[in-house]
Design goal:
By secondary structure, the chain is mainly alpha-helical. The chain has two helices and no strands.
């Protein structure tokens, strides 16, 4: 083998090595691109799942708030009806038993006055 043949063989081998390196680099680029695409798809899916979960949670909170508001409205309505019934019963009792009603009111007033006086004295002592 002469120097020229050896140089040509070396050039050819180097060209083949360069071609192999270029193919390896291109294969790596494609594999990396596919891996990045897969990661990007998974990230997007996670974002969509997160958005869906958040949206579902917001919907549940809104539904709970609506139920709570309805229950509060119903409880207020029932309490108002009971107070009206109690007022009607008190008026009927006063109409039917006026003397007894006045005596009960006077006794309740005296009890309240006594309680207030006792509380005022106990605070001055303390």
């Amino acid at each position: 083998m002469t120097a020229k043949t050896a140089a040509a063989a070396l050039d050819q081998t180097m060209d083949q090595a360069a071609d192999l390196a270029e193919r390896a680099i291109e294969g790596t680029r494609r594999a990396t691109g596919r891996a990045l695409d897969k990661v990007e798809a998974e990230v997007q899916e996670a974002r969509e799942d997160k958005a869906f979960s958040l949206s579902r949670a917001v919907g549940q909170v809104e539904a709970l708030a609506a139920r709570t508001r309805d229950q509060a409205r119903d409880a207020t309505h029932r309490a108002r009806e009971r107070l009206e019934d109690a007022g009607d019963q008190a008026r009927a009792y006063i109409r039917d038993e006026p003397v007894r009603s006045v005596l009960i009111a006077a006794a309740a007033g005296a009890a309240m006055a006594g309680l207030i006086g006792w509380l005022a004295r106990s605070r001055r002592v303390s």
